[in-house]
Amino acid sequence: MSSTFVTLAEVLECRGGPLLEDEVWSLLLGTAESLVDVSYKGHNSMCSIISPTSLLLSATGTLAFKNCTLSDEACTFTAPEMLQGRASSTKPAIEKMLVYSLGMTLYWSVDYHLPQNQPVQLSDHLNSLLLSMCEDLAHRRVNLNSILESCESQHKASLLPPPNRVIGQLVEDVFHKAVSVCWGWRGGSVWVCLSVCALGPEFIRMADEPQVVLELPGSIVSKKGRSCSSQREVIVVLPSGQSVLVRCDMKSRGRDVFDMVVAHANLVEHFYFGLAYTDDDEYFFLDHETKISKVAPDSWKKVVSTSFLVFLRIKFFVDDISFIL
Description:
Keywords: Repeat. This is FERM domain-containing protein. With about 325 residues, the protein is of the alpha+beta class. It has 2 domains: about 5-175, Orthogonal Bundle (Transferase(Phosphotransferase), domain 1); about 200-320, Phosphatidylinositol 3-kinase Catalytic Subunit, Chain A, domain 1 (Ubiquitin-like (UB roll), Roll), CATH 3.10.20. It is built from 9 helices and 12 strands. Helix 2 runs antiparallel to helix 4 (about 90-110) and helix 2 (about 20-40) packs across helix 7 (about 165-180).
């Protein structure tokens, strides 16, 4: 299986309910180990906020952290000292902020979609540990080493499976719910691809529907209704056949257009897809960080009225058939 990551938020959205206690223990242990490892290796560029949309899980059981900017959505998971502008850049201070974020993120995961009158189902031990991570005062928060000790003791006492196995299963549950199997031949050997089986009404054939026009926030249109010289148009053909016209800037990147289109399509399983362009009748996927101008034809860069055609396509393939059998 390729090392595709999904976010914790996507895991819970797919499940439609909260994490179980044993899953929280495993995720807490795995995350604490990763944070200690990052700290030991001296990576100073890591963000001080962990949130459900920035904690990444892979099918191989590994974890990663996506940079999480301070936004309205992330405020819930941000340490008070950071919100109040009192955050220090020292290693112990950053650790305390990460501990707070992780605690709030895990509390969110055990309360996900619970009815208002239904209490969170946690043991006193785990509840106490999470509360100690979410103390408003940084000096009262538990540190990472203490979290590790508590998690390791719990795993040993309860004979819990290794964190990587639990994390991998959480991700596989997302994949298995969202995909079906299709078979074919490539180069004389069997290949298996992932295809989304529950695409929903947004992927019913809509080729005859009128074109939708989306505009990136950075695009500027003059009062006369004409685009400025740097504005361009990208036409995205959805799997339904419907086309979406995205007005963007010449400096826009693949991610800008991709995020706008998947948000419009309300596409939850967006991690299977990518934007692809054609060259000599062959499809090539556009990297999220690549500027569109790097792959667009010269005419698109020079002539304002020229559109660049791309396609929203399924991107990922299964390397090991046993993953889906």
